[in-house]
Each structure stands twice: as C-alpha cells, then as structure tokens.
Amino acid sequence: MLYIVIPVFNRKNFTKECLLSLKRGTNQNFKVIVVDDGSTDGTAEMLREEFPEVEVLFGDGNLFWTASVNMGIKHALQQGADYVMTLNNDLEVAEGYIENTYKWMAQKPNAIIGALEMDAGTREPAFGGEIVDFKLNKVRHLLHELPKEKQVGLHAVSQLPGRGLLIPRAVFEKIGLLDQDRFPHYVADYDFTHTALRNGFELYVNYDAKLYTYPEESGERQNRQSKSLANFYKHLFDIKGGGNLRDFTRFTLKNCPTPYIPYYLANGYARRIFGYMLK
Predict the structure, then answer these.
(1) What parts of the sequence cross the membrane (predicted)?
(2) Cα–Cα distances in Å, from 108 out to 78, 102, 141, 155?
C-alpha cells in the first residue's frame, strides 16, 4: 500500500486543493496522512469536515518540515506501508499522477522516484531532476538537456526534492528516516536522497508523473521579492532561509567527497551571499 504524507502549517486552501486533486486521480489506491503542525487557520476543522478519509496527526508548531514528514512516515510504516510518498500541500497533482507512479514503481520497485514539476500558472515544465558534480561544482538540470520527445519515462538523477518523492519501505529499513537533527526544514530531502544513492538505491525522475507547483508561494521566493537587511539575514541564517549557511555546510560535509569540500564550500557561500543581492 502507498501512503502519502503531507506536512502542513496553515494555508488551508492550498491543502484543500492538493487533496481535491488527489481525489480526482484515475488511481485511488493510496492513503493520505496529513501532519498538521499547529495550524491556526481552521485547517483541522476543514480536514475533519471535508476529508474524513484523511488521517491527521498533530504537532505543536515546532516540528518544521523534516520532523513533520518523519512523524507521518513513522506512522505509515507502522500501518504497514510498502511505499511512502512525501508531498507538499502547495501543489496539485495531475489526474494520472498516481497511475503513472504505480506504472514505473512496478518497473523499479526498489528505486526512489521523483516527479516532473509543472508551473501551475503556465502549465510548462519547471523542474525535471538534477545531477550534481561535486568535482566541478556544477548542477546539471535534465529539463534543459532533454529534447521534448525524450521528456517521458524515467531518467536517472543524483538528488531529488521532497515534492512528490516516492520512497520504498526498504530504503527506510536500510538508512533510517530523514535527518531532522541536522536539517530541520530545508535540505533534508536532498541529503536523504544522496544518502540513499550511496547505499545502493537508484534515483529517478518520472516524467510521466506530473504535479503542478506554485513557485511564487515559496517563503524564499517571497523573501527575495522584498529585499532588506533583515530578510538577507533570514536568507542566510533563519531555519526557513533558502540560503541557510549552516544547512549548506552540514550538507557539504556529509555528502561531498572530502577532496572537493573546500572549493565546494567557498563557491557555495559566495553564491548564497551574492546571489541574494543579484537575483
């Protein structure tokens, strides 16, 4: 059985639309767990009244993304889940999303599989997987490399985000849950997939499984739109800062091959500091 884990904090309208998109799907062979980390906007009431089939777990407002996801994953595994999918609430899935997930799950039962992200506004592809080259300090974006006719099926990658991330039970049994101590909010998904890859699990993006995202709604995007010294500080040091230097340092020390660490860190610090000012 596939369990879908969705961490939420307020923004109940996004949560509602996300769940409705799942209900419109051509395959309903899944269960949903929502982890509500202290919402104050009526999310719990909305879920109880409109989605009684959804199981809801509650946090106290201090879990952040990673601990919320881990709470849901642990519960799913206790219920006997064969696969767990992490899904953010600020997205919607295409009608064939689950159906095409099962299609490729059968072909690669032990692989971790991500989704093709589409911009919800333009309906154009926005993200299709990445391959990291630590030696050259480069990230290849497959969506920019693949011609249109090849943007189907599975494509191997070296890291994946947690938006629509399908994870077999065997992965948790071998490497454990996401690292919520080092990465409480951002980077935990990338760290988890790098760890899985080192432990022999394949990573793919499924170009047949499409989900629709709202990039302008991300906290980091809004931070950049309203630049100030206070927001610059949040960008670099806040737990929800997209350029958090602590998280980047921990990720590098844990995942980058030792010979390339100094250059990778220096380059990454520069991009996070100066990139905020330039973008």
Answers:
(1) none
(2) 23, 10, 22, 12
Specify whether 238 is located in the same domain as 133: no
Q: Give the pLDDT confidence of 60-87 residue by residue, as tens digits.
A: 888 999 999 999 999 999 999 999 999 9
Residues in Cβ contact with 168 at an 8 Å cutoff, skipping those fewer than 6 apart: 82, 83, 109, 110, 111, 112, 201
Nearest of 25, 29, 5, 28 to residue 15 by alpha carbon: 5
Q: At what angle do helices 188-198 and 245-255 cross, to 10 degrees?
A: 0
Q: Mapping DSSP to helix (H, G, I), strand (E, B) and coil, where does residue 263 land?
A: helix
Q: Which of 215, 240, 263 is the last residue of a domain?
A: 215
CA distance 107 to 126: 25
Q: Which structural domain range is residue 58 located in?
A: 2-215
- Domain of 176: which CATH number? 3.90.550.10
**192 sits in which H/E element:** helix 188-198
Distance CA 2, CA 9 (A): 23
Nearest to 20 by CA among 130, 105, 95, 77: 95
Picking from 215, 238, 261, the residue at the C-terminal end of a domain is 215
pTM of the entire predicted model: 0.93
Contact 36, 59 (CB under 8 A): yes
Q: Tell the residue number behind the tokens 């230097």, with chain if given.
A: 245
Name which of 32, 30, 36 is nearest 67 in CA terms.
36
Block residue for tokens 């931070």: 223
Same domain, yes or no: 206 and 225: no
